[in-house]
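If your schedule permits, I should be very grateful for your opinion on a structural question. I have a record of one protein: its chain in single-letter code and its fold written as discrete structure tokens. Kindly check, if you would, that the fold set down in the tokens agrees with what the sequence suggests. I remain grateful for any guidance, and I place the record below:

***
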Amino acid sequence: MHVGIIGGTGGMGTFFARVFAEAGHQVSVSGRRTPLSNSDLARTCDVVVVSVPIRSTVEVIRSIAPLLREGQVLCDFTSLKVAPVAAMLETKVAVLGLHPMFGPSVPSLHGQTVIACPARISPERAEEVLGVFRAAGAAVTVMEPAEHDRLMAVVQGLAHFTTLTVAGTMRRLGVDLDALLAATSPVYRIETALVGRILGQDADLYGPILRENPAVPEVLAAFEEAAGELRRAVEGSDEEAFGKVFHEDAAFFRAYIPQATEDSEALVRCLADR
């Protein structure tokens, strides 16, 4: 295949340009300072991948739409799927929404997850692209765009919101981070490291994930209810309230607890060995 990656000079674009090239495919990229333009890729490539920030994705898709021809495959790497897939379906080409569930700093696709939303594409054409990821060791999970965005409101939205809330709490308390880290065990250092990892990246990456996903407000409303319930259990006079909340949550997680314990213990041992 001749694969064209719009935004191919960015982190994720560069990563996947390497993935496709190592699989033996011809790869062309466009960016702000490349000889090739987005239009060049739209006119010439068999597979066109849009790998630009969330806020720009739909605009870029619509800008190249008139240049696309039947027989091509149009993809995107956006963290949201409903709006980009809808925009791609306005074209006349095959459509395959993609969401790599990792950042470009990973060494390879081995062990990583890629979510696929095959919106208008034959299984054979989809496998031409997805087979590249599987061959490189990735797990491909297929779902509908709306289901994807609902899940991402929890997987990304809730996780990032919680992490940033922890950071904001520490800031308001004026916590001495050096003293905090000196007093923590590996498991708490992992939790704190996740906060620092998020804050070491670009706000423009996380803001749209929270602001642009229409499923996030419902998740945040549930978060506020859960936080309120837990606070009442901690501060109230009912000594059994906390246990009730804890055991209800444990029952919800029961099937996952053994795997969670095994995975987290492996992380703790890894950090302790360092």
Observations:
- The chain is about 55% helix and 15% strand.
